[in-house]
Write a structure and sequence with these properties.
The structure holds 2 protein chains of 2 kinds.
Chain A: H1 2-30, H2 36-42, H3 52-62, H4 67-88, H5 90-93, H6 95-132
Helix pairs in contact in A: 1-4, 1-6, 3-6, 4-6
Chain B: H1 4-26, H2 34-57, H3 62-90, H4 97-122, H5 126-155, H6 161-186, H7 191-215
Helix pairs in contact in B: 1-2, 1-7, 2-3, 3-4, 3-5, 3-6, 4-5, 5-6, 6-7
Classes of the chains: A mainly alpha, B mainly alpha.
Chain lengths: 133, 232
């Protein structure tokens, strides 16, 4: 009985902390404006949609990885899967939840696009260093 | 002996723990987040100590078990003080530091007394069981205190991104641990899976802290209301 209560409380806390942690990662990138080049490549013009996420992630895989991004990209990937799960279950019954998951999925896509931008400039810097050497 | 997967997780965890201290020194925040760094330093030392005992005595030896439980109790106490240091950052402007310290000592003493009371009823090897009981109870107290701290961050509109990320990652760590302990009590047949999961959870906290200290500038700010799961 007691273990059940502790499990329910800690699972709810885990979900809440995880969602808030992912949102704090997203919030840090939301102020960054995307360059015209990345907008063209990703197809994100004004407001990003959740459907852009997979495409941007595929582009992200093509760029050399920056070690400092790996943790946050994995966390947001897990968050996106969680949002997809909510969208296909609970959000079908609660319309406000549907709007919320859509907006969050769009934010995830924007985060991925900002990470792509950083990776592109990282690759350029590496190339420039190699050319200089 | 250790399997290749155990080796990898052990090395990664120790590496991430050391990375937190290195990042703090590099970013010149070692003294500011002293208790967080102290916890990570203790973790590195304990990891190395456990490894030594494991190599010489083996995993099923009594020495390894004793070393494991006593060091775990010590680590949990240091982590408790690291959490209290995060409290003092959040309540800095209210100048409640004296009360926080007093409250922390009272909570720790209360948890120790409760653990002793539980062990005293039924145990022959009391000190070892006390260390185990204290460690488990402090994990749950840590989760409750982290949850309360997160509530205070939202209520006081704390805007420091670094502090918010340190608290949230600690919350994920505590709640994942508490959930895994509880589920292994509920379903003992799942213990073999939980046993594999626990070291992975242990890697997440130093990884998230190292990332936050390395990547997030001290002056970065955000609106905490944006982070709440339920919009405010």
């Amino acid at each position: 009985m007691m273990a059940g209560v502790i499990f329910a409380f800690s699972a709810a806390a885990l979900l809440q902390f995880f969602v808030s942690y992912c949102r704090s990662l997203i919030a840090a990138s939301s102020k960054q404006v995307l360059s015209a080049e990345v907008k063209d490549v990703t197809g994100i013009q004004r407001i990003p949609s959740g459907d852009d996420f997979r495409r941007v992630m595929q582009l992200l895989q093509l760029c050399p990885e920056r070690p400092e991004d790996r943790n946050s990209v994995q966390a947001i990937g897990a968050y996106f899967r969680l949002l997809n799960f909510l969208r296909s279950t609970v959000a079908r019954l609660v319309p406000s939840m549907h709007a919320w998951t859509e907006s969050e999925r769009g934010q995830c896509a924007y985060f991925a696009a900002v990470t792509l931008e950083r990776r592109i400039s990282f690759s350029r810097d590496m190339l420039a260093q190699q050319m200089d050497a | 002996m250790l399997s290749p997967a155990d080796w990898m997780i052990w090395s990664l965890a120790t590496l991430f723990e050391a990375a937190v201290v290195v990042c703090s020194v590099h970013r010149k925040v070692f003294r500011r987040y002293f208790f967080l760094n102290l916890y990570m330093l203790f973790n590195v030392l304990v990891s190395l100590g456990r490894f030594q005992v494991l190599i010489h005595q083996g995993r099923s030896s009594v020495e390894y078990r004793y070393f494991y439980f006593y060091s775990d109790a010590l680590l949990t106490i240091v982590l408790f003080f690291a959490l209290i240091s995060l409290y003092s950052f959040v309540f800095q402007e209210l100048q409640l530091e004296r009360y926080l310290r007093l409250g922390a000592v009272l909570v720790l003493a209360g948890t120790a007394w409760f653990s002793y009371a539980v062990v005293n009823q039924s145990s022959a090897r009391m000190l070892t069981h006390f260390a185990f009981e204290l460690s488990q109870n402090l994990y749950f107290i840590g989760l409750v205190l982290t949850y309360a701290l997160w509530g205070a961050i939202l209520k006081l509109r704390e805007t420091r991104v670094l502090l918010v990320q340190l608290v949230l990652s600690l919350g994920v760590y505590f709640s994942a641990y508490a959930a895994s302990y509880a589920i292994s009590n509920l379903r003992p047949n799942l213990f073999s899976y939980i046993y594999l999961l626990v070291p992975i959870i242990g890697c997440l906290l130093p990884l998230a802290w190292a990332y936050a200290i390395w990547r997030v500038p001290e002056e970065a700010r955000l609106a905490p209301a944006r982070l709440a799961v339920v919009p405010r």
